[in-house]
Amino acid sequence: MVRQCVFPLCPNKMTSFSKFSFHRLPLDSPGLLNVWLVALKMDPNTEIEDLNRASHRVCSAHFAPEDCIHTKPKKKGQEPQRQDLKRSAIPIVSEGATDAVEVNLFFFCY
């Protein structure tokens, strides 16, 4: 089964040849998880167990470049092979990802 990005209207799929990295929801941080769920237009009252079981992913197209940490060194002329997210990263509508979606984010201080 191929997973698809859960960002609204995003067509990106998690495949071995995808140019995107895919990131799990921050289930260990309730406040940040709530912000992510609002950004993803999901029910913020969804149980953690249900979210964990669903194993949702959000593709890297919905994060700003400064939200990413490259975990493998970049070889000359090549893209990094793996990216992790900073703890403060929140999914957003990014240029080129999808133009049909507009998301209202609530800012969260932690």
TrEMBL record:
GO terms for molecular function: DNA-binding transcription factor activity; RNA polymerase II cis-regulatory region sequence-specific DNA binding; zinc ion binding. InterPro entries: THAP1/10, THAP_Znf. GO terms for cellular component: nucleoplasm. The keyword Ribosomal protein does not apply. Residues 1-94 form the THAP-type domain. GO terms for biological process: endothelial cell proliferation; regulation of transcription by RNA polymerase II. It is found in: Nucleus, Nucleoplasm. Keywords: Cell cycle, Coiled coil, DNA-binding, Metal-binding, Nucleus, Transcription, Transcription regulation, Zinc, Zinc-finger. Belongs to the THAP1 family. DNA-binding transcription regulator that regulates endothelial cell proliferation and G1/S cell-cycle progression. Specifically binds the 5'-[AT]NTNN[GT]GGCA[AGT]-3' core DNA sequence and acts by modulating expression of pRB-E2F cell-cycle target genes. PANTHER family: SI:DKEY-228B2.6-RELATED, THAP DOMAIN-CONTAINING. This is THAP domain-containing protein 1. The lineage of its organism: Eukaryota, Metazoa, Chordata, Craniata, Vertebrata.
